[in-house]
Amino acid sequence: RRRKSVGIFLPSLSSDLEKLNASKDVEPSTKVDDYPREDDDEVGKDSTTEKAHQRKSLHQIRNASIISQGFEISWLADIGTRPEMDTLQPHVNRCLSHDDLDALKDNPVPLLQKRSFDSEIIRDPVSFDPWDDQEDMLILGTSADDTEALPHVLSPPLMESLQQFLPFALTEDNYYLKFSLVRDGSSLHAMLDKVRTSSHCILALETSDGEVFGAFTSTKWKIQHGYFGNGEAFLWSMRRSRLIPCGSLEEEVQREGEIDVFPFTGENYMVQFCNSNKLGLGGGSLLLDSNESSFGLAIDDDLLHGTSGSSSTFGNRPLSKSKGVKEPFEIVNLEVWTLTPCMDEQSADQLEFFLDFREKNTISSQ
């Protein structure tokens, strides 16, 4: 598959990298093609090697030191030629959005992300069911044959698209379905119980109009007073409704991967909200002369209805295109997925419980 993500960009970072690459003080970096290859003499068999070189470059980026104060960038490793820099640009962008709200309070301007509201996933033609393509993706908590959780809201192509916008440390993690409305019941309290130890969550819902949208959050969902959360959160939506007919399976798979992403803007800190009656994300009006404020996404405690409006927290348009800001949409299924580095459900649960226990005891000891 070939991916091109243009949903998030940092023009200032791009220009800084160009200056850095052209600096006389920096020695010419090694090109990707300069690395030795085992199959240089064989034509048409270099795709595996190219993938390995890209992975090597992505590991190099982990050694880069990015200093937000003054927007100074210091590289401790070569990142290759200009074409390779274009490939690594999305990963660098995600590194810059890894700061939480506390780090952004003093001077958030250098780290604020600009949005084009566009994202494009270019895929090779396929002739198989999306849920059968799991060679490169381990999915925990459900499967294509899990009749209790059908129909799924997230599909593998949609999961792959969302991975491009996750914090860099999570891009290789596996998806784990912790809650499904059709499987676990329509209750906010049931949902909160299922995800009580999960820090990183992807909320995904499908409406009766076939629209699919949701949010990514990096703070545990729980009932508490006021807003909480951090700057890694974002809202997202599929561009096209699933009720719109597709001419082929290939077109259906392509539709699943086309999404719009709305990252944290830094305009306010109204990221997550949860009480016994409602779950919400985002807030604040986009209009300077307006006193009206709406959630970017709000879901009732029965998980069957919700609303979506524009918010300055994420700079988003209403996620539901078929309903107005004050008009509720009907939810046919809602899922909450967590992300885990583990390869099985038991290990994933044990890791979450351990991290949750350590966090609570660290807080209590302070």
UniProtKB/TrEMBL annotation:
In this chain, the stretch annotated as Disordered covers 20-56
This chain's protein is named Oxidation resistance protein 1
Family classification: Belongs to the OXR1 family.
Q: Which organism is it from?
A: Corethron hystrix
What sequence ranges are listed for the domain TLDc? 152-340
Its GO CC terms are: mitochondrion
User: Where in or outside the cell is it found?
Assistant: Mitochondrion
Composition bias, Basic and acidic residues: 20-35
Q: What is its main location?
A: mitochondrion
What keywords sit in the KW lines? Answer: Mitochondrion
Q: What is an example of a Pfam family matching this protein?
A: TLD
